[in-house]
Amino acid sequence: MNLKELQNDWINAFSQPMMIAGPCSAESESQMLETARRIKETNANVPIFRAGIWKPRTKPNGFEGVGVIGLNWLKKVKEEYGFKTATEVANAHHVFAALEADVDILWIGARSTVNPFTVQEIAMALRGTEKTILVKNPVNPDLALWIGALERLLGQGIKNLGVIHRGFSTYQKTKYRNNPNWQIALDFKSQFPNIPMLIDPSHICGNRIGLADITQEALNVGYQGAIIETHANPDEAWSDAAQQITPEILAELIGNLKMRNTDLAGFEGDMGRHRTLISDIDFQLIELLSQRMKISEKIGRLKKENDIAIFQPERWKVITEYAIQKAVETGMSKEFIEKVFKAIHEESIEVQNNIMINR
Question: Signal peptide: which range, if any (predicted)?
Answer without folding.
Answer: none
